[in-house]
Specification:
The complex is a heterodimer of chains A (about 230) and B (about 240).
Chain A lengths: L6 H6 L3 H34 L5 H11 L4 H12 L14 H37 L4 H11 L1 H17 L2 H7 L9 H11 L2 H33 L1
Helix pairs in contact in A: 2-5, 2-7, 3-5, 4-5, 4-8, 5-6, 5-7, 5-8, 7-10, 9-10
Chain B lengths: L9 E10 L2 E11 L5 E4 L6 H9 L6 E6 L10 E4 L10 H11 L7 H11 L15 H13 L5 E5 L7 H16 L3 E6 L2 H7 L2 E6 L2 E7 H6 L4 H7 L6
Parallel strand pairs in B: 3-7, 3-8, 5-6, 6-7
Antiparallel strand pairs in B: 1-2, 1-4, 8-9
The chains are: A mainly alpha (about 230), B alpha/beta (about 240).
Chain lengths: ~230, ~240
């Protein structure tokens, strides 16, 4: 990529290297959010609806895990995926797969904690009706998740925001390898340190644009859905 | 015409409900038999809503026992309740009814027909696709009635179904209650509105401080109340 072009020119010229980085970033972050949603939404709903010893402690822990330091997660995932680690046989270290794993670990507590709060609030509202309808546990969870779907979009957006902006974990487990594990955030960090500010700024603009576009899309879908379903 | 229900009579035998050191229902002995609507009246906090919850099976007595058709453990398949502030599921009016039909195990093939019938019964056929939470208070209460009736109940419990409704909405709800009662569904309703009790009740149960102070046919209760509490309540005095 040339150094003497402006950030805007880079973006507007559809630079293939830049768009490869953008594509990989979206693939990693969206995959991590999808996996985290598969784990975090049922987990949050289960905690919301189940009474067990130590539940309050689990809620405090889950809320605390929302602020997990990315570099610590990166280090833990690195140790787990390294050759001598328990998951070393999968050969994931320094691949996009490792980056997805790290971001999933970071995002799951956010989605689970926000889901837990959302479902618990809705359960207070629905408890009498669903109990009177003699609905079983699975039916209750399914109903609550479905009816909270527009609020849960906010949890997914929070997770996506965390994943898209994250650099500490993926640079450790991905290695920032050009054309293979380089994402927008790791590239921004690298190019800034090399002094290639146009590329760094260009990537920053794209990153902000994507985050705004995803949020706008989700907000529009939520508003439309709420109009139809109440 | 509905066949005699295994849910009825509902018999309370020395039912007491206590929570946090407070006795909410105190040694209730009561039989709810098939027939005209039974109306529970009494001031706020007298135990009407708790009695309905016990009768529905949502709340277990602290002491005493309750039987449905002579049996102690009967799943609430033929009982339904409408709460004072019913929660509207976040979906359309017709989807709310379809949800109740599914929960009641009604075959899917019957859903469209039953939904249309129930919407017509409660006068909401023109609002089938409207989001339930965007309906007015009176419309929501009528939808809650339709949802409860989706269970094809033998007994319908109503907890102050017209509280906070205007006269037009109240009349609409009362008309549905009459229709339901004419279909041989036993209606048990809590209210603190005398007028409503006079208009709907076949039998009255008056509660005060968790105890039954008087029961009897509506006509004799309103014309010649036997107890001091009932006379004071009917005279509009504050029962504390």
């Amino acid at each position: 990529m040339p150094n003497d072009v402006s950030a805007l020119q880079l973006v507007l010229s559809s630079d293939p290297a830049l768009f490869a980085i953008v594509r990989l970033s979206l693939y990693v972050s969206l995959s991590a959010v999808a996996l985290a949603a598969l784990i975090g939404i049922p987990l949050g709903a289960w905690i919301a609806l189940t009474n067990f010893r130590g539940r309050q402690g689990v809620i405090v822990l889950l809320n605390a895990l929302m602020g997990l330091p990315p570099v610590v997660v990166g280090l833990a995932v690195y140790l787990a995926l390294s050759r001598s680690g328990p998951l070393g046989s999968f050969g994931l270290l320094f691949t996009p797969g490792a980056m997805i794993v790290a971001q999933t670990v970071l995002v799951t507590p956010i989605i689970a904690a926000l889901t837990r709060q959302t479902i618990e609030d809705l359960w207070i509202e629905y408890r009498d009706e669903l109990t009177a309808m003699n609905l079983g546990p699975v039916g209750r969870v399914a109903t609550l998740i479905w009816d909270a779907r527009f609020s849960l979009v906010t949890a997914l957006l929070a997770g996506f925001g965390r994943a898209a902006a994250e650099v500490g974990a993926i640079i450790i487990v991905g290695g920032n390898i050009e054309g293979f594990t380089r994402t927008m955030t790791t590239a921004i960090a690298l190019e800034t340190s090399k002094g290639d500010l146009p590329l760094a700024v260009g990537l920053g603009l794209v990153l902000i644009g994507i985050v705004i576009a995803v949020n706008a899309l989700a907000w529009t879908a939520r508003r439309a859905g709420e109009r139809l379903a109440g | 015409m509905r066949a005699p229900s295994s849910e009825l009579p509902i018999e309370f035998d020395g039912v007491t409900v206590a929570a946090g050191g407070v006795t909410i229902l105190d040694n209730i002995a009561l039989t709810l038999a098939p027939g005209a609507p039974t109306v529970l009246i009494g001031p706020n906090g007298s135990g009407k809503s708790t009695l309905l919850r016990v009768a529905m099976g949502l709340l277990a007595p602290s002491r005493g026992c309750i039987t449905w058709g002579g049996l102690e453990h009967v799943p609430p398949l033929k009982r339904a309740i409408v709460f004072q502030r019913p929660a509207m599921l976040r979906r359309s009016a017709s989807a709310n009814i379809r949800f109740a039909l599914r929960a009641a195990g009604i075959p899917r093939a019957d859903h469209a027909r039953r939904t249309a019938e129930l919407l017509e019964l409660v006068g909401l056929q023109g609002l089938a696709d409207r989001a339930a939470r965007r309906l007015s208070g009176g419309e929501q209460q009528r939808l809650a009635l339709a949802r409860a009736l989706a269970r094809d109940p033998a007994v319908l419990f109503l907890d102050e179904p017209t509280a906070s409704l205007d006269p037009v909405a109240t009349k609409a709800v009362e008309d549905i209650i009459r229709t339901v009662s004419e279909r041989n569904i036993k209606v048990v309703m809590a209210t603190h509105d005398f007028g409503e009790a006079r208009r709907l009740a076949g039998e009255v149960v008056m509660l005060h401080r968790g105890r039954i102070v008087e029961t009897g046919a509506a006509a004799s209760f309103f014309d010649a109340p036997r107890t001091l509490e009932a006379r004071a309540f009917l005279a509009g005095e504050l029962l504390i």
